[in-house]
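User: Structure please.
Assistant: Input sequence and predicted structure:
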Amino acid sequence: MPESEKKFTQLIEIMAKLRSPEGCPWDREQTHESLRQHLLEEAYEVIEAIDEHRIHDLADELGDLLLQIIFHAQMAAERKEFTITQVLDAIIEKLIRRHPHVFGDEKVESASDQIKLWEKTKLTKEGKRSAIDGIPKQLPALIRAYRMQNKAAAVGFDWSDIEPVWDKVEEELLELRDAVGREDSVQIEEELGDVLFSLVNLSRFLHKNPEDALRHTIEKFKRRFQHIEAELKKQNRSLSSATLEEMDAIWNRIKQSE
């Protein structure tokens, strides 16, 4: 038996032991619902390790994420709903089905062609009712919009070049400005959503993930703002004692130094 197979089996056995009457009280009390947040947190810790290029931590974080999968499978097995083997069977079958150019006779020349083939397979062989089905509502809104637009584009609902996308962004900004001028609260929210959605579409044409772009900007803001705090602290001053012009001057110095 390969070493990886031995370790995988050992992990399954450990999880079963933890859930047993002789195991851990905390583990026995958990449910699919109680573990939802843990699953989400572990996934984000994997993303953080990737973003920060902590490759040595990545193996550890992936292990934590794998544990969540084993945990859910073990709870389901106890209730005779499904087993980890069925989980593996499902993903193996799906990978083969969605890669007919590797395991069948289909021809694919590019990653773009592959995406279109995926969406075609989902509609024709997996019984999807809509080309934009299968996107979890719980996803962050930027990611959900990005995924939805990609799915629509894969079946031909897309502009052929970026120019109309720029035009759409400008159109939505004008409509938002108009709604603000009319002080129409309901319309402001709708138009703001349209602006964000059009910017997500622009990011898609620029081949940039909007969620990643925004997260990087958030981290940049955090870094620069904390520099302002540190600079003022050196002067024995607080944020509340500084004017916006003073803080903005420090911000610009930090920006230039970067």
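The longest helix spans residues 210-234.
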